[in-house]
């Protein structure tokens, strides 16, 4: 089957994306979490909330102990996907993991927290691509993969989540990672880690082109989403206001999949190797 790999799947947006994919597509989902085995059934239940059909449940595997600060768990998870699904089955790698330690000034910099942000927000995404991109079909194998679709009434099991002629490497970036948009300062490490993630996406996209991969690489800014991630900054009483780019989780997922479905490699080179926001507008570097 065609596979979606979601890293950071125990988090607010990762979990909601996994659920959305199970509810709205025929993709098989590997949901990676750095939490231990004892938390797997809890995460599984939370992803499956509201999903009644057995087919949806059968398509989900939660893989525990995948701490993206090291390669052991990522390598093990990639081998599991390859053994169970085959070598060229991945259509989507969604890197959702991230941490924020918002420093207001130089005096607040704590080296270990800065390193943590780079390891998780930036290098963790890079290592995820290192282990899973080899399982994305190249363009020739993608043609063979599409014969599988006969099992799905001849249609792409991604069902418009991603373009039917491509695969996707998707990293959660952030507008604050844009250097040209930095008019306020603050958040040194988080900003820098996301700017570096953008550079990784750009570089990855070149490699995907060179290797004739079916995948396109992009970064994404979801707006401000009311999650446990943002509450320490925007407060517990924050209220969604989509007109100002402030969303509840489900609203954010709706915007996100709307952009995902538009990404493709075409002659205009419009989408590839760039960072996009929830309006489908480019976030400049
Ligand atoms: N929320 C927003 O407004 C917003 C805005 C711009 C960008 N973003 C980006 O969107 C992404 C998701 O945000 P969110 O709001 O869903 O945050 P979240 O709820 O805090 O989720 C973050 C995820 O990262 C995982 N993670 C942390 N350390 C990890 C590690 N060492 N190994 C593997 N996974 C690890 C967390 O796992 P545990 O839960 O197990 O700790 C969790 O699944 C982040 O990259 C964030 O930077 C969010």
From TrEMBL:
Gene3D superfamilies, per the entry: NAD(P)-binding Rossmann-like Domain
Tell me what this protein is called: Rossman fold oxidoreductase
InterPro entries (UniProt xref): Fungal_SecMetab_SDRs, NAD(P)-bd_dom_sf, SDR_fam
Under Gene Ontology molecular function, one entry of this record is: oxidoreductase activity
Q: Name one GO cellular component term.
A: cytoplasm
The record's similarity note reads: Belongs to the short-chain dehydrogenases/reductases (SDR) family.
